[in-house]
User: Fold this.
Amino acid sequence: VQLVESGGGLVQPGGSLTLSCAASGFPFGNYGMSWVRQAPGEDLEWVSGITSDGSKTGFKDSVKGRFTVSRDNAKNTVYLQMNSLKPEDTAMYYCAAGPRTSGYVLDPTKYNYWGQGTQVTVSS
Assistant:
C-alpha cells in the first residue's frame, strides 16, 4: 500500500498550490479520502474529506471557500486545490484513506493508510 503526496512548496500569501496524492495497493475507489495537516508543535488537524465516489466533500471551517478537494478514481489520485493561502496554512499535509467506507471521517485514528506528507509553507 502506498499513498504518495506531491505538490507542496513555498508560496507567498494569497498564492495557490495543488496537492496530489497517488494511491496504490488497495481498492482506492472503495475508500473515502481525507487531507490532514500538522503544523510544528501542533496536533494533527483534519482539513478536508471526499467520499469514495467524489459526490460529497467537507472542509474545515477555516479553509472553506479557499480549498477544494477532488478525486479521479481512474487514476487512483486525490487532489487538494488550495487558493488564497495564508501563513496559518503552513503545515505538513498528509493524505489518508479509510475507514473502508463510502464516506469520510474526521478522526485521524480511524484512517487505514497514510502518505508520507508534503510540506506547504506560506510566507513572504
Notes: The chain has a mean pLDDT of 96. The first strand starts at residue 2 and ends at 6.
